[in-house]
Amino acid sequence: NAGVTQTPKFRILKIGQSMTLQCTQDMNHNYMYWYRQDPGMGLKLIYYSVGAGITDKGEVPNGYNVSRSTTEDFPLRLELAAPSQTSVYFCASSQPGGPYEQYFGPGTRLTVT
Amino acid sequence: QKEVEQDPGPLSVPEGAIVSLNCTYSNSAFQYFMWYRQYSRKGPELLMYTYSSGNKEDGRFTAQVDKSSKYISLFIRDSQPSDSATYLCAMSAQSNYQLIWGAGTKLIIKP
Asked: For A32-89, what is each residue's pLDDT tens digit?
């Protein structure tokens, strides 16, 4: 049981490039989330999904897109990367029903230069 | 005003001290209260959760919720250098699966 896995661990992008951050969970969780965490800051929700085929915007969705074709996978797409997207990105998952505790992946550290 | 307020620290204490970490919140609908620990360059991991008011103890860790004051605390007894991490509080309402996060408090335990 690997939990939540994310790839890649690190990535450097040039301004204007695009990339996909991968996230997979093997806990059969319905809910999945993408967060970004800037240095010394808390977690900001980018997008979330309550099940395959259903996604919705979080607090900071601009510049990102997601899809959820299976229960296990929830990739995050960055289009036209900007320096403001330099951050650490975390994927998380949770089950329906309280307490809704979330399980996190190890993160992807992205630098846009 | 943020829904959840948490002092970012850093909080530096000597090894063996009792540590108190706190969050305040404004939404009276919150029923689930969680503490996550995040080591440097790692993802957050759930430490403890509490439902509604009261205390919960797990080894050296005690979580306390005071709903009347909208205030939650995490106490660490006999603190160890390995407890050095950022501690994030998170909360959710009964009917809402989304967690509302505090900014996290960076804790440093000095040997």
From this structure: 999 999 987 789 999 999 999 999 999 999 999 999 999 999 999 999 999 999 999 9
The CATH number for B4-110, chosen from 3.40.50.920, 3.40.50.300, 3.20.20.80, 2.60.40.10, is 2.60.40.10
Residues A1-21: pLDDT tens digits?
A: 789 999 999 999 999 999 999
Enumerate the residues of chain B whose CB falls inside 8 A of the CB of residue A50: 97
**How many angstroms away from the CA of B55 is the closest CA of chain A?**
16
Cα angle for residues A74, A64, B100 (degrees, 5° grid): 70
The domain spans of chain A are: 20-94
- Residue B57, chain A, CB below 8 Å: the answer is no
CATH architecture of A20-94: Sandwich (2.60)
For A53, list phi and psi in degrees, rounded to 5: 85, 0
CA-to-CA separations, A72 to A24, A54, B59, in angstroms, rounded: 5, 13, 34
